[in-house]
């Protein structure tokens, strides 16, 4: 399961443009790169500690590290590269950024299971404190990470942030923009965890939640794609994009990106889980017949 989903995440396209206030060049922002580098540094420190203490578990640690690196690089490409800056001038580029965050980046990070490795970056006393906090929040986590709940949470986050009032605010305020991207990432991490690792998630339920998610995102993307007027005032005020698209055309292409590639990504994952479900059913019937 992990290998197939990882291949799906790595197969997602990664455009090479960028989000900021100035020009077309690359202007790294420490507000983005600071947390990204801290995240990578903590993982590296925890990995080194665990790797030194582990013998039989080293192959699994290496696999997890490769998945983490792929997810981190995808997240960095989406939020810290010129693509982030291009999103200030084109909703299409902004949509590519969001799709990279919520699809391949989130999925790869979930498949990496970085939690235990990150914990080992801290001293023993801190790890004990984190474990106590985790036990106290177990009931809430079990509710949030239930497959249907996680699906609805991610869908609500997606639709709410694409309401013109909230999206315009995110475009006009860096703080709101960070909050938007953080909520996209966290809701996507929760969703992918629920369908890939959830204790109560069978293959059939995972497939159902993925198909439902493809419909939720596809419906929003279709509304954008068929709209003849721009939804978001800051993009409408810019006039033509650097590629020569009108604001309405730019939005229509952004909607197509959410609708078609985004929906196809979830549908492909759903078909994988559906295949696993049917395969498990055949095995069960074969065992029962013997």
Short note summarizing the structure:
With 290 residues, the protein is mainly alpha-helical.
Highlighted features:
290 residues
Any overview of this molecule?
- By secondary structure, this protein is mostly helical.
- The chain has one domain (2-289).
- Helix content is 78%, strand content 0%.
- It contains 14 helices and no strands.
- Helix 1 (2-10) packs antiparallel against helix 5.
- The longest helix is centred in the C-terminal third of the chain and has 43 residues, at 247-289.
- Residues 13-24 have low confidence and may be disordered.
Q: Estimate nothing, just give the exact number of structural domains.
A: 1
Mean pLDDT, nearest integer?
86
Please compute the radius of gyration using only Cα atoms.
20 Å
Classify the secondary structure makeup into a structural class.
mainly alpha
Low-confidence spans: pLDDT under 50, at least 5 residues? 13-24
Gap between N and C termini, in Å? 27 Å
Using DSSP, what is the number of strands?
0
Count up the helices. Answer: 14
Largest sheet: none
Quick one: overall form? globular
Order of helix and strand elements from N to C terminus = HHHHHHHHHHHHHH
């Amino acid at each position: 399961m992990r290998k197939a989903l990882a291949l799906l995440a790595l197969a997602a396209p990664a455009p090479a443009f960028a989000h900021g206030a100035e020009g077309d060049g690359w202007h790294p922002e420490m507000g983005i790169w600071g947390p990204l580098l801290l995240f990578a540094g903590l993982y590296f420190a925890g990995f080194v500690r665990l790797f030194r203490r582990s013998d039989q578990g080293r192959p699994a640690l290496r696999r997890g590290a490769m998945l983490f690196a792929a997810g981190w690089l995808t997240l960095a490409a989406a939020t810290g590269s010129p693509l982030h800056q291009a999103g200030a001038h084109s909703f299409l580029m902004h949509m590519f950024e969001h799709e990279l965050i919520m699809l391949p980046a989130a999925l790869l990070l979930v498949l990496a299971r970085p939690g235990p490795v990150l914990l080992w970056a801290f001293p023993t006393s801190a790890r004990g404190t984190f474990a106590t906090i985790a036990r106290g929040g177990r009931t809430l986590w079990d509710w949030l990470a239930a497959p249907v709940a996680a699906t609805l949470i991610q869908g609500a986050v997606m639709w709410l942030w694409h309401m013109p009032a909230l999206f315009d605010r995110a475009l006009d305020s860096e703080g709101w923009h960070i909050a938007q991207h953080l909520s996209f990432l966290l809701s996507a991490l929760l969703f992918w965890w629920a369908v890939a690792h959830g204790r109560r998630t069978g293959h059939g339920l995972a497939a159902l939640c993925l198909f439902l998610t493809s419909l939720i995102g596809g419906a929003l993307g279709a509304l954008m794609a068929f709209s003849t007027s721009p939804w978001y005032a800051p993009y409408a005020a810019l006039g033509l994009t650097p590629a020569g698209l009108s604001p309405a055309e730019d939005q229509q292409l952004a909607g197509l990106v959410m609708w078609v590639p985004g929906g196809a990504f979830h549908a492909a994952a759903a078909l994988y889980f559906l295949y696993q479900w049917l395969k498990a059913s055949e095995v069960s019937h074969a065992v029962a017949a013997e």
